Each structure stands twice: as C-alpha cells, then as structure tokens.
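Sample intake sheet
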Amino acid sequence: MRDLKIPAQRHPEKAHRPDNDQPRKPDWIRVKAPTSEGYKQTRDIMRAHKLVTVCEEAGCPNVGECWSQGHATMMIMGEVCTRACTFCNIATGKPPEALDVFEPGRVADAVKKLGLNHVVITSVDRDDIEDGGAEHFAQTIRAIRRQAPETTIEILTPDFLRCDPSVLEVVVAAKPDVFNHNLETVPGLYPEVRPGARYFHSLRLLQRVKELDPSLFTKSGIMVGLGEDKQSVLQVMDDMRAADVDFVTIGQYLQPTPKHHRVDRFVTPEEFAAYEKAAWGKGFLMVSATPLTRSSYHAGEDFERLRNARNAALEANPA
C-alpha cells in the first residue's frame, strides 16, 4: 500500500476551485434547521455510543428530517478518508488510528436502541488497510443480525480499488439486504470530481456483487449539477442496468465549502422528473430522483418498495 502522508484536514485544498459566479440556491433546495426532540434523541444515542454519522460529516441537508424519525446513516472505520474527492466534506488524509474492534458491537447496540426497521451503514475509504475494511463491514453486519435480527441492512461501501478482488466476497457472504456503491458522477468528470477512483472499476464491482449473490439488491447513485449533460446521465443509467443494478438514486450536488467543486447549476424538479421517468423506462426496480435525494434518504421505505417490486416481477415472470 502507498504511504499516505497528507495530514488530515476538515476542508482540504481541492483541485477544482470555485468561480465567483456561484449560482444562487433555489427555493426547492432550502430545508429547515434541525430542532425536533427526535433529532436530539438520535444525536444523543450517536454520542453515547461514540459513533460517527455521514449525515453530519458530509453535511446532509436531510439530517433534521431523518434524525427526527430516528434514522441515521452510521459511518464506520473512522472520520478520516484516504481519498480526496472534490465533492466530499469528509476529512481527508492518513487515518490516525487502526480499526476499532468494538465498533461493530456499538453500531449494533445503537441500531437496537433506535428500534430501526432498516439501517444504512457506510464508511470512509481506508486504502491504508489491506482489505479496505471488508472484514469490518462483515463484522458489523453480523453484529446487527445478532442484536437486531428483524432489522434489514443496507451497506454503502467504498470501491476496494487497491485490494485483492476476493475481499468483495467477504462482504457479500455476510448477506446485507442491499449492497450500495455510488458511481457519484458521469465518467467524464471522474478526473476532477473523483480522482482516486475508476468509473469502470466501480461499475464492475456492482456487477460482481450480483454474480456472487443474485438475491442481493444492488443500488447506486449519482449527483447532478456538477457539469454533466443529460446524455451522459442517461448513459450512466444504461451502464448501471447492464451491471444489473436494481435501484438508482439521483440528487442535486451541493457545494459543502468554497474549496470544493463548484455547483455548475441547480437542476430543476422538472428535469429530475424526466430522469425518473427515463430510469423507470430502462427497467430499474426502484428509482429516487429529486433535488434532495441522497443514498440513504427514505432508505427504509424505498427498500420496502424495492422488495415489493421484485416480488411483483417474479410473480409476473417466474423464469
């Protein structure tokens, strides 16, 4: 593994600096500040269990709504990511600590106390670890199964780009209900938006999950408003379907700080509706395409719809 010596930074210098003509945030993007009692209770449980959430680390606009309902996307393997994607607000550098062997148990305990029907577990990239954290994901899934056997589990994984391909088998063997890995953007924007990743590697990872276990639901998402065009978004949908991805999410990119990739434009709700219609037409079992869509936004409700859609498809075509 390469020796990453970049010190951890909350707002790292990014390759793509913003221009002064940042478009104004439209009304359909604005959300209320989180103040509810449910929000506070969720926050207190996260603090008591010393857990990190991507909701806070990535500055998700839906945190108030989700946490008020006790839904939080837990981020395992630390707070420092070994990648420096220009869209992401998570600290980047060399993680200062090894993996916490007690973290899977704390996650499972929090899931039980929150009484979750569905939980989303994600992580930072850990290129400093030989298996990229694959076994840690598996241990977390198994711990949740023991503590909260009725809870369905969705994982949002890194790409395991610098690992032996067999590490993916470790995660799949733990049998999450949904395996999510986001493509994030169109391939032409990877060099400036996701420079440490490879588009076709991520696509192949999703395809490989289905080959290893066809019963697992696969899911992937992209952001729009980064500078892509409509045709490239439609092509990504085709690529996902070729990899047998079941569920696509499309949401508006929001620039977390002035040092991150600038917002090229705010995509209108009408355009999102058109993307949703196109995605249904391409054969996805589940589609979420709105300005505020994020990977784990309404994930529990969407999982139920996804499961129902598969059952209906099997009834219509048993073969």
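Comment: Residues 31-316 form a domain with the TIM Barrel fold (CATH 3.20.20.70). The beta strands are 52-53, 74-76, 80-81, 91-92, 118-123, 152-156, 178-180, 217-224, 247-252, 286-289.
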